[in-house]
Amino acid sequence: MSANPFIESEDQEQLRATARAVIARHAPQRDVRIWDEEGSYPEHLYREIAKLGWYDIVADDEPLDGMAGLLIALCEEVGRASSDLVALLNLNISGIRDLIRWGTVEQQEKYAEPVLRGDGRFSIAVSEPDVGSDAASVATTAERVEGGWLLNGQKTYCEGAGIPGTVMELFAKTGDSGRKRDDLAVFLVPSDHPGVEIRRMPALGRNISGIYEVFLHDVLVPDEALLGEPGQGWQILKERLVLERIMISSGFLGSVGQVLDMTVEYANEREQFGKTISSYQGVTLPLAEMFVRKDAARCAVQRSAAFFDAGLPCETESTMAKFLCGQIYAEASALAVQLQGAYGYVRDHTLPMHHSDGIIARVVAGPPSVQLNFIARSMGLRGN
């Protein structure tokens, strides 16, 4: 990464240019709109991503120099097509990182190699009907039995879990020691494993990846399915979330950029009362303010990436970046629909998709209230 985090390195610029060309060819707006409407997964795109070696950014035992900086450039360009495509990319990248960090050589060969080839993919199963931000309180159980572990329970809001070839990183409790975090473990469970039932949940957005419920009925997995050791689940999740927030935040920035570009083009062409609507301050000033906020949010993402690449703690910084980017994506897409009127509401283009996906952007990887509470604690504010 460049010595100045706000100036891209040559590697970042090259990756950004390549990513922009690849997305233009393999994920044009017309196709993305159809994928979203049909709820279809673009397997060819992720095969191309694997072929280009983008997963290799995180696949080495030693972190690549400037890794986070490269990922934010990549995710922003993919995000211009769809934040949902970034979510799928993030699941694969995060899964590979988890396997490299916590997995055995055999697990890496069995679960990570198919993703690196473009044949497989990862999902994550943490949330449950009664468990959201309090991830340590999962009720799904993992009981040690002869031949491995027996899993029982239910997971919800598992993005991409129903896509063929998916392996879930599934969080379950292995006991009741009294300290919930110490009982958390991660299991690598293929979505088509015996005893696993997958149901797609009708949702307002995120239709390309799909959101799924997962039901576990006496699912027997071998000892080799355990990632790390029993009790390391909380640490795996906590370490994962920092880079995950940085990546998805950058993806949101790309989506905001696309939404603003679409709206500027519309405003310059649409005429009312004898003038283009870009002549009216009621249109131009809100768009200008969104542009300023997007640029400020990008600085927060770049700072988080620079801290991460320098090996510095950045949980607070990544949380602030995610808060800012999720908020602005939701607000920018809503503003764009408002300014484009009826045209912004019809599905002739991807703006309705961005509006739907922008709503959930505020919630994924931690809702605003939880993020602000964490930031407040980092400021030194203490509750009773």
Q: How would you describe this structure to a colleague?
A:
Helices cover 53% and strands 16% of the residues. It has eleven helices and ten strands. A hairpin with a 2-residue loop joins β2 (141-145) and β3. It has three domains: 10-121, Acyl-CoA dehydrogenase/oxidase, N-terminal domain (Butyryl-Coa Dehydrogenase, subunit A, domain 1), CATH 1.10.540; 123-229, Butyryl-CoA Dehydrogenase, subunit A, domain 2; 234-378, Butyryl-CoA Dehydrogenase, subunit A, domain 3 (Up-down Bundle). It is globular and about 80 Å long. The chain has a four-stranded mixed β-sheet with strand order 1-4-5-8. The longest helix is centred in the middle third of the chain and has 37 residues, at 233-269.
Helix-strand layout with pairing:
Layout (H helix, E strand, L loop, with lengths): L9 H17 L2 H10 L4 H9 L15 H15 L1 H20 L2 H13 L3 E5 L15 E5 L2 E12 L6 E8 L10 E7 L5 E6 L9 E11 L4 E2 L5 H37 L1 E2 L2 E2 L4 H29 L5 H31 L5 H11 L6 H11 L6
Parallel strand pairs: 1-4
Antiparallel strand pairs: 2-3, 3-7, 4-5, 5-8, 6-7, 9-10
Helix pairs in contact: 1-4, 4-5, 4-7, 4-8, 5-6, 5-7, 7-8, 7-9, 7-10, 8-9, 9-10, 9-11
